[in-house]
Amino acid sequence: MEKLLITPIYAAIFALIMVGLSFYVIKMRYKHRVSLGDGGNQEMLKAIRAHGNFTEYVPIALILLVLLELNGESAVVLHGFGSAMLVGRLCHAPGLNSRGTTIFRQLGMVLTFGVLLGLAGLTLVRML
């Protein structure tokens, strides 16, 4: 079986970000004395959603990256999608924790959806 060289880099980086988002939720729980849920606190809710949103979108992107890498997709394409997803996720979380909808939050979601659509489309094209 072919050795994966690119996707593990992004998986590791995303894992570190996930841990950071988890620690932020823990910090907010301690600050607001909320052990479960958001306790009706807006700051707590934003921290939970930043973490939740990350865990909702990143796994499918990594799965599609692995599938493409295992099927011989070029390193340039894989890094393009991986780095775009990384930028999207790095823009989104701080944007979500700001007041209102920020340009960073919007850019984060545009990049995230663009990457997912691109990966899904490319996977379908390559596999058909």
What does this molecule look like?
With 128 residues, the protein is mainly alpha-helical. The chain has one domain: Membrane associated eicosanoid/glutathione metabolism-like domain (Four Helix Bundle (Hemerythrin (Met), subunit A)), CATH 1.20.120.550. 80% of the residues lie in helices and 0% in strands. It has four helices and no strands. The chain has helices at residues 7-32, 42-70, 75-96, 103-127. Helix 1 (7-32) runs antiparallel to helix 2, helix 1 packs parallel to helix 3 and helix 3 packs antiparallel against helix 4 (103-127).
Mean pLDDT: 93
> H/E element string?
HHHH
What about the largest sheet? none
Rounded Rg: 16 Å
Number of helices: 4
Number of strands: 0
Strand percentage? under 5%
Number of domains: 1
CATH topology: Four Helix Bundle (Hemerythrin (Met), subunit A)
CATH homologous superfamily placement: Membrane associated eicosanoid/glutathione metabolism-like domain
Shape: elongated
Structural class: mainly alpha
Spatial separation of the terminal alpha carbons? 22 Å
What's the CATH C level?
Answer: Mainly Alpha
